Amino acid sequence: MTKKIIYLDYAATTPMDPSVFKAMEQYFTYNFYNPSASYLAAKRVKKELDGVRAGVARHLGAKLPEIIFIAGATEANNLALQGVMKQFPDGEILISAVEHDSVRTPAWLFDCHEIPVTKQGIAEPLAVEKFISDNTVLVSVGLVNNETGTIQPLKEISSILGKVRAERSKKGNNRPIYLHTDAAQAGCYLSLNASRLGVDMMSINGGKIYGPKQSGALFVKTGVRLSPIIAGGGQEWGMRAGTENVPAIFGLAAALEKAQSLRTAESKRLTGLRELFIEKVTEALPNTQINGSKKHSAPHIVSATFQGRDNERLMMELDEAGIQCATGSACHAGTGTPSHVLAAMGLPDKASRSTLRFSFGRHTNENDIAAAIRELKRILSR
Ligand code: PLP
User: Fold this and answer.
1) Residue 330, pLDDT above cutoff 60
2) pLDDT at 336
3) Helix (H, G, I), strand (E, B) or coil at 16
4) What global pTM score does this model have?
5) Buried b (16+ CB within 10 A) or exposed e, 259-270
6) Distance, CA 166 to ligand 1 centroid (Å)?
7) For a pocket test of ligand 1, which of 152, 205, 300, 303 has the largest count of ligand atoms closer than 8 A to its C-beta?
8) Is any ligand 1 atom within 6 A of the Cβ of residue 206?
9) What is the CB neighbour count within 10 angstroms for residue 100?
C-alpha cells in the first residue's frame, strides 16, 4: 500500500485545478495563435484575451489598460519596483522588514529603507509615516506575509500616503508617492479590489491560486509613472515585451475567477482548520509558540516554533511520515539562513531555526490536521 501524503505547503504552491487546466488546453494545441498576428484566427485569440483581461480587471477593481500580464509575482514585483525607480532614479523606496525576497532584492538596488514591524509582524501605519521622506516615491508592503500569514493594514497605510501627497502639494513638492502591494498570498482569501485597498500597484500570481506557475499580473493604476524592464515588442501596453504566454493568461484568469468565487467559503473553512491546528498543537506540545498576529491573519498559514528542535530535521522526519511542510519561505529552503521575517519580529536565530510553516488549502481537511499533530507529537516525544 502506498503511504498517504498530506500536503501542508499550499503557501509554496497549489496543485492546478482541473478546470483551469481545461481552460488552458486549447491555447497549447489547436488555438495556438500569436495574438499580435493579423489573420482572423489570431485576432479571435486577441479578442478572447481581452475578454479574460476584463475578468481579471473586474476582480482587481481595475480598467483594462491597468492590467499587465506577466510571468509570476517575482517579475511583477520587479517591474513595479524597478519600473518606478527607473522613472525616479534619485528617489527613495520604503519596504516593510518582512517583504518577500522578490521585493527585497530589487528594492535594495536603490536607496531603500525598511519599516520595522511589531512582534506580530505588522507594519504599523505610524511607523510607515515616520520613515517617509520628501524623496520617497514608492512604499511596498505585502498584503499577506508568506511565512506567518499576517495581513498588513494597507488601507491605513494608504491614508498616510494620501496625507503625504496633500502636504507635498502644499509645499510645491511634485514628487509622487505610490503604494505597491505584493498580494501573491492573498488571492484565495481576501478581496483584491485595488481601489478599496488604496494601492497604486498590486502583484498577483497564478501558482498560488490553483493556476499555472509563472503566470501573474501587475495592476498599475492609471497615471503611475512606470518604465518597462524588459525591452522588445510593444506587448502588454509596452510594459512587458514578448509574445504573450496565452495559455498561462487563460489559466490565471480561470484560477482567479474560481479562487475569488470560493473566497468567502474557503476562508471560513480554513479559519476553522487553522484554529483547530493551533488548539491541537499547543495542547499536544505545550512548548509550541505560534508566530504572527492572532487577529490579522490569513486563514491558510501557521508559523510554529518547536523550541530546541532543528526545523530542517523535523521537516525531514515529517516528510518521511508523509507530512509535507516547510521550514519557512520555499525560497530560503536549504540556504541555512534564518528567516529575515521572524528576525524582524524579534525571534532569536535559535527560535527561527526551530520554526516550521504549515499551510493549508482546498484539499486539507480535519483528518489531515489530526494526522499532522499525531506525527509531530510522535516525532517530538522521541
Ligand atoms: N511574493 C510572495 C509573498 C510569495 O509568497 C511568493 C512565492 O513564494 C512570491 C512573491 C513569488 O511568486 P512567483 O513564484 O510567482 O514568482
Assistant:
1) no
2) 65
3) coil
4) 0.97
5) bbebbeebbebb
6) 33
7) 205
8) no
9) 24
